[in-house]
Amino acid sequence: MNDKEIYEKLKPYLSCLKPCIVCGKSDFVEWAGIEYLNAKKCSNCSMISVNPHFTDEGLDEFYKEYFSKRLQYTELARQREEMYILDRDWVQNFINKGKVLDVGCSGGFFLEKFSPENWDRNGIEITKDAADFARNRLNIPVYTGKISDLDIPNDFDLIMLRGVIEHFSDPIGCLKKCAESLKKGGYLFITATPAGNSFSFYIYREKWRLFTPLEHIHYFSVDHLTKILEPIGFTLTARHYPYEETPYANPERDFIKMEKDIFYKFSGKWDQVESSSAFPGSMITAIWRKN
Description:
By secondary structure, this protein is α/β, with parallel strands linked by helices. It has nine helices and eleven strands.
């Protein structure tokens, strides 16, 4: 089943148009769209979200086969393995031991990269098959369900959201729960998240690779996340935009493609442009400290 077919199946679960999740305003401009996805940019704060998007019931239906399908893509899995190491090494510049919680941990593959000698590893995962995989194959404790519904401890030193905050219909509720669950002085680590203010999204719009996955709803910038997190007790510690060190990058190829596609975009030849490739500034990695 392709994305269009999945969308048609889940169309009854579309929500109504919602206000901006950052500022609460409802004044939008169209930003990117294909026949089954439409992203709007807030005229007040520039936050970009797919709007309307699927309700929680629709997302539950979508994720039923998500993990099993993801395991089929072996090349992407190999690339993710490299990224897990890069992300782990970056966050360990700020904290290198303690009790860690990975929200949306899937099969536990990222958590597995954290040494059990230094880390008390824990995960949260909404899909039972992925949570069972982490428990049974990797011996990692995982809470099954949505973070908003779970009774979890409030003694974590590090909470991580890797490639997941953009999936939440209510990301602010998730971030507030993370704030409650972190110790004072603990860290919130958000990584592998599409940057809504990236140059590549500006150029490619609906042809940006990070726009088209049906599970992507919100396209934050680090500043948007900080605006949400500061009132609930966080201070931005550092930000990073991985590119050249990643397995996706080929600077010569990527820069030549961008140059060519910009020419096509502004000379009426947009139909000749394929989807984007990797480009600097497209993915967010950032860490905040709880005050």
